[in-house]
Every structure is written in structure tokens, then in C-alpha cells.
From TrEMBL:
Enzyme nomenclature, EC number: 5.1.3.1
Pathway noted in the entry: Carbohydrate degradation
Entry's family note: Belongs to the ribulose-phosphate 3-epimerase family.
Protein name as it appears in the record: Ribulose-phosphate 3-epimerase
Free-text remark on how the cofactor is bound: Binds 1 divalent metal cation per subunit.
Binding of a divalent metal cation, residues: 31, 33, 64, 173
Keywords: Carbohydrate metabolism, Cobalt, Isomerase, Manganese, Metal-binding, Zinc
Active-site residue list: 33, 173
Cofactor(s) listed: Mn(2+); a divalent metal cation; Co(2+); Zn(2+)
GO cellular component: cytoplasm
Function field: Catalyzes the reversible epimerization of D-ribulose 5-phosphate to D-xylulose 5-phosphate.
Catalysed reactions listed for this entry: D-ribulose 5-phosphate = D-xylulose 5-phosphate
Biological process according to GO: pentose catabolic process; pentose-phosphate shunt
Length: 213
């Protein structure tokens, strides 16, 4: 299991320190939550701050867009060369076109599904994706409780991707901890995002290792 700590739970007054700490502690990706105050009722960081994060991160960035105007934000973040840019399918009229645009920048495209969005909604996109991100909380905030129904959804999605695109990873984001990591592994999840669980631990290394099962 790969682990992407979400810097939403970092200390923004000491962001460089916290980014370096999770990278040195052995995380696989640095998860960056971009919120615009419209798609979700919260506002986070833009390309100025994320470019500082990119400079001190020694692990690849996993940018999670929670915004209304996806194309505008893809153009804004592409020069920072993240490994992944993911966007919410609920907020995109032309997801296939946006996947092509992300790939044209040399970035791996990923799609995010909110807790209520069925995996079947992306059946005809799976072949063009590098990762699918399942939200296991309602997007917008860290520190929420894990929604159990995502386990059945991940199981169904795992069957779909094994058939249609075995190289496409499944990522789960929200309320992930050592309490649910085994259940997530059992249904075929490849990558977990963990914000509050990692950052509340004194030893980031122990926290990250406890999820890398
Ligand atoms: O995208 C989001 C929230 O919208 C996440 O990436 C959270 O930041 C995860 O935080 P925890 O639930 O792990 O505290
Ligand atoms: Co996220």
C-alpha cells in the first residue's frame, strides 16, 4: 500500500518543515488539496504556495482539485510537474477532454468520485486513467470519519479496473487510519491519503509505516 499524507493537516506556518518531515519519513506521494470555496465550502492554497511545496518535497506531488473550473486550475498547476492531477467527475462536463489535456502536459490523469457517485459513471473513462480516487468523506475538510460504504464501492471498482485497465491505481481519501487500512487493502486499494492520522502522530515514520502494509 502506498501512502500520500495530505498536507491539509500540516502546520501552514511551518509548511517546509512538515513537507520535509513526511518525505524523510518515507511517504510515497505528497497529497495537495486544492479547494476554491465554490465546489467545496473551504478554501486552501494556490500555485504560489504549491510551488514552494514542490521545491522542498523530495516525493512526487498528488494534486487533488476540488474546484469548479477544472481546466483553469489544470493549466495553473501543470508547470509544477506533479505526478498526478485528479479532478472530480461531478464537476466536469467533458472529463475525457480534460484527461487528454492533463496527459498532454506529461502528467498522470486521475478522476475523483464523491461518496455518492457510482463507479459505473466512469466505466468508459477507466481505460484512459492512471488512477481513480474514491472519497471516503465528503470533500472539503480533514479529520472527518471514514464512510464505510466506500469499501463495497472499492471492491466493485477493483473488479472493473482488473477487467478494463489493470494498470490504473485505486486511491482512497478521507478518514484513513490503522483501524481501516487492512479492510482497504483487502478490497484492492493501492494508495491511501491520510491527513490527520499522519500529522497527529509524533513519529511520522511510525504512522506512515503502519499504513504501508
Ligand atoms: O481531500 C480531502 C478532504 O477534502 C482529504 O485529502 C483530507 O485532507 C484527508 O484528511 P483526513 O480525513 O485523512 O484527516
Ligand atoms: Co484530498
Amino acid at each position: 500500500m502506498k501512502v500520500a499524507p495530505s498536507i491539509l493537516s500540516a502546520d501552514f506556518g511551518n509548511l517546509q518543515h512538515d513537507v520535509e518531515e513526511i518525505c524523510n519519513a518515507g511517504c510515497d506521494f505528497v497529497h495537495v488539496d486544492v479547494m476554491d470555496g465554490h465546489f467545496v465550502p473551504n478554501l486552501t492554497i494556490g500555485p504560489v504556495v504549491v510551488s514552494s511545496v514542490a521545491k522542498c518535497a523530495t516525493k512526487p506531488l498528488d494534486i487533488h482539485l476540488m474546484v469548479e473550473n477544472n481546466t483553469f486550475f489544470v493549466d495553473l498547476f501543470a508547470p509544477l510537474k506533479p505526478e498526478y492531477i485528479s479532478f472530480h467527475v461531478e464537476e466536469e462536463k467533458h472529463p475525457h477532454r480534460l484527461i487528454q489535456k492533463i496527459r498532454s502536459y506529461g502528467i498522470k490523469p486521475a478522476i475523483v468520485l464523491n461518496p455518492h457517485t457510482p463507479p459505473e459513471s466512469i466505466e468508459y473513462l477507466i481505460g484512459d486513467l492512471d488512477m481513480i480516487l474514491l472519497m471516503s468523506v465528503n470533500p472539503g475538510f480533514g479529520g472527518q470519519s471514514f464512510i464505510e460504504s466506500v469499501l463495497a464501492k472499492a471492491k466493485k471498482l477493483n473488479e472493473m479496473r482488473n477487467k478494463l485497465n489493470p494498470n490504473c491505481l485505486i486511491e482512497v481519501d478521507g478518514g484513513v487510519s490503522d483501524k481501516n487500512i487492512r479492510s482497504l487493502k483487502a478490497v484492492g486499494v493501492d494508495v491511501v491519503v491520510a491527513g490527520s492520522y499522519v500529522f497527529k502522530h509524533d513519529s511520522k515514520e511510525e504512522a506512515i509505516k503502519s499504513l504501508q502494509i
